[in-house]
Amino acid sequence: MVERSETTSSEDKINRGPLMLVLISGAFAAILNQTLLATALPHIMRDLDLNASTAQWLTSIFMLVNGIMIPITAFLIERFTTRALFLTAMGLFAVGTAVCAVAPNFPILMVGRIVQASGAGIIMPLMQTILMMVYPIEKRGSAMGMFGLVISFAPAIGPTLSGWMVEQFPWRSLFYVILPVVIIDFIIAYFILKNVTNQTYPKVDVLSIILSSLGFGGLLYGFSTAGNTGWGDQQVLISMAVGAVALTTFILRQFKLKQPILEFRVFKIKVFTLTTVLGMVVFIALIGGATVLPLFMQNMLGFTALESGLMLLPGALLMGFMNPITGRLFDKFGARWLAIIGLLIVTTTTFMFTNLDSQTTFTYLAVVNAARMFGVAMVMMPVTTAGLNQLPTHLIPHGTAMNNTMRQVSGAVGTALLVTVMTNGAIPDEGVNGLIHGVNVSFMVAGIAALVGLILSFFIKSSKAEQNIQASS
């Protein structure tokens, strides 16, 4: 492995406090940006004279470009220095945000979203890789817990903040709020960020990048569109078919390359595979709830968008505050019992959403959702860290890229699946309660997925390194 002289992986040379602040600020801005537009779309549609299907592309294109960029970050991390890649990603994100803020029409707004997403797609896996490099194994749980605070907190305050802002100010204000955070983060990173990854200079395999883009992009687009148009839609079928063929070809090609763009051999490590699957199951429960509950509240119970956002807020706050705590617990006890207890809570509370009706109260939804998020916090970051801890240093960039890619895919699959089940399970002839029946069925499916995760969590075993940490603590 070629190691550049300016690269440092020594934990003693790195001031971790400011570094964490820079990483968390960048992650917060990237994830908050992803969730802000959902509530603002009606205002953008009115201002730019767009129909719903056209406006939806503002969120779809961001997810698509994100899904295309994330799998190739492992290649980029091995090709470029940490500083160069982080500053480029934050720079792209800042430029895209500025373009969105001043966009006079839809095409320019779309260009801004594409540029934003190209930076945001690099930021998340890169940040996880940096954390795994600069923290020793006995402190990684706490570090990832702090990182998890942002991952859970930003998506939850996004719809509430956006709902309030678009009622008080023009929709462009959403981008003006994010822009200063990104610029300040870029400036601080320029002065304090050190190179912590090693360059192996893999060859650029253009065909692999094209196949990866078509594969992951096609599947993500297919799943996200299926939630709105149904699984039989021609666009959905074509994009899924193209995605499946391209992704299969991409995977087979990676096994033949000496320096693959994305190393699928990480799945030969059983604990990494198991924890990745568990992360996907939990993310389906998380995203599904965040999608289905607002639809239930607004379309069937008559609550406003702001009220549905406020219902999700206690759970987000609880999950955010719990992540650093579960991170410390992981460092002390490992992931196994955290995952078992967390998934038991997630499974139980998900099934508590299978008996909703027109009399269901705001308080019931907020309390049960908060309990669900408490369970999610016990599982999400600990299992991610446990999986990445199994990987040798040179495979960590591939592990973080794979982890984030699978999370994107499971989010798209979970949303499409639960929305489709909700639609197909509805009984329109029975009025509101007939529509609510579809919601109950969708949570039944989510509950079964969580139950599968609970069973799998019993197979998590602590690594020798983790056992040594626990023995010495």
Search tags:
mainly alpha, MFS, 473 residues, Growth Hormone, Chain: A, disordered C terminus, globular, cell membrane, 79% helix, transmembrane helix, 17 helices, disordered N terminus
Q: What sort of overall outline do the alpha carbons produce when their principal axes are compared?
A: globular
CATH A-level architecture of the largest domain: Up-down Bundle
* Secondary-structure element pattern, one letter each: HHHHHHHHHHHHHHHHH
In total, the number of domains comes to 3
Keywords: Cell membrane, Membrane, Transmembrane, Transmembrane helix, Transport
Organism: Halobacillus campisalis
Domain Major facilitator superfamily (MFS) profile: 19-465
Membrane topology: Multi-pass membrane protein
Brief digest:
The chain contains 17 helices and no strands. The protein has 473 residues and is mainly α.
How would you explain this protein's 3D organization?
By secondary structure, this protein is an all-alpha fold. It has 3 domains: 13-201, Growth Hormone, Chain: A (Up-down Bundle); 203-260; 266-466, MFS general substrate transporter like domains (Growth Hormone, Chain: A). Helix content is 79%, strand content 0%. Helix 4 runs antiparallel to helix 15 (396-425), helix 5 (82-102) packs antiparallel against helix 6 (106-134) and helix 13 (336-351) runs antiparallel to helix 14. The radius of gyration is 21 Å and the shape is globular.
